[in-house]
Design a protein that fits this description.
This protein is an alpha+beta fold and about 280 residues long. About 30% of the residues lie in helices and about 25% in strands. It has three domains: about 5-50, Uridine Diphospho-n-acetylenolpyruvylglucosamine Reductase, domain 2; about 60-170, 2-Layer Sandwich (Uridine Diphospho-n-acetylenolpyruvylglucosamine Reductase, domain 3), CATH 3.30.465.10; about 175-275, Enolase-like, domain 1 (2-Layer Sandwich), CATH 3.30.390.50. It has helices at about 15-25, 35-40, 75-80, 90-95, 100-105, 110-115, 120-130, 220-230, 235, 255-275; strands at about 5-10, 30, 50, 60-65, 70, 130-135, 140-145, 150, 155, 160-170, 175-180, 190-200, 205-210, 220. Helix 4 (about 90-95) runs antiparallel to helix 7 (about 120-130). It is globular, with a radius of gyration of 18 Å. It binds flavin-adenine dinucleotide. Flavin-adenine dinucleotide binds next to strand 2, helix 6 and strand 10.
Length: about 280
């Protein structure tokens, strides 16, 4: 299907893009276009204006800023997968995102803005506990990873805001991500997946996130509480879906997805603890 007619502007700067969003309510930002264009073709989105930020200089770098890693809005999933600066959970999630063509075009920031619960890198981002920087004509704000996702395909970004940077804390320790892809392997959207960060090999101080099973990639607070009180990863993983409404979809029943979430929480924790030691 073809999208409805729309205007297209390639912005030359973040300021120009922000002004275009301000002046054109309902306009959509485009980074890699890997999710926006299919949504427009399916007519799930019909913006009158597409603001392409893909040619804005200076947004495609990964920088070590001492206490955090700064990832520009145009950094592709492939760059994330290959960078030595990126923690293992996020590298793995990026490496397991689609095929080479997808990873070469799709941006990590675009995946966060798109807020698909079945996406891989957003789950790793929630476990690593970073922030995003959102800019509009009035200035900028930082949003914490676990406040970035509001509902199905809905992030905390306002319609006039551009996500310009993702910040990942340099917390040390170890991290890991694991999932079941829709076609049984790794390189596809996740049916269910989990990411874990641990401060050390005991795993007591940790952040764990579950993706694919509810409406948003969510922190598994029950698991974190159990690990803090000394439970084994296997016992803690029993609480993987506490506080999450698990939804049945084309890829699995509630029961199956809840089971997968436990399996991947345990595996992610065990691997993160091994990576920390
Ligand atoms: C064939 C295929 C297979 C895929 N497989 C996987 C997979 O296995 N795992 C997985 O996790 N993902 C997968 N994806 C999704 C892919 O990772 C996302 O399409 C991508 O990350 C979105 O990034 P993008 O730069 O293309 O965003 P776009 O398509 O440009 O934008 C997506 C949405 O985010 C908004 N947006 C984008 N950038 C910004 C910004 N900087 N500020 C504000 N809003 C913004 C847009 O307005 C739009 O609503 C797949 C996609 C395709 C097409």
């Amino acid at each position: 299907m073809y999208p409805r007619e729309f205007e297209y502007v390639a912005a030359g700067s973040v300021e120009e893009a922000a002004q275009l969003l301000e002046d054109n309510p309902g306009a959509k930002v485009m980074s890699g276009g890997m999710s926006l264009i299919p949504m427009m073709k399916l007519r799930l989105l019909s913006p009158e204006l597409v603001v392409d930020i893909g040619r804005i200089p200076g947004l495609n770098t990964i920088e070590d800023r001492g206490d955090h890693i700064a990832i520009g809005a145009l950094v592709r999933q492939r760059q994330i997968a290959e960078s030595p600066l990126i923690p293992m959970a996020l590298k793995t999630a990026a490496a397991q995102t689609g095929d080479a063509q997808v990873r070469n075009t799709a941006t990590f920031a675009g995946a966060i803005a798109h807020a698909d619960v079945a996406a891989d890198t957003p789950t790793a981002f929630v476990a690593l506990g970073g922030t995003i920087v959102a800019k509009c004509v009035d200035g900028e704000r930082e949003i914490a990873a676990d406040a970035c996702f509001v509902d199905t395909l809905t992030s905390a970004l306002e319609a006039n805001e551009i996500l310009t940077e993702v910040r990942i804390p340099k917390s040390g320790g170890g991290s890991a991500y694991d999932k079941l892809g829709r076609r049984g392997g790794h390189t596809d959207y996740s049916v269910a997946g989990a990411a874990a960060w641990v401060a050390d090999s005991s795993g007591r101080e940790c952040r764990v996130a579950v993706g694919g099973v509810g409406t948003i990639p969510a922190l598994a607070s029950g698991v974190m509480e159990a690990m803090a009180s000394g439970a084994s990863p296997e016992d803690a993983a029993e609480r993987a879906c506490e506080g999450i409404t698990v939804l049945e979809d084309l890829y699995g029943s509630e029961e199956y997805k809840s089971h997968l979430a436990k399996v991947f929480v345990r595996r992610a924790l065990e691997q993160a603890m091994a990576n920390a030691s």
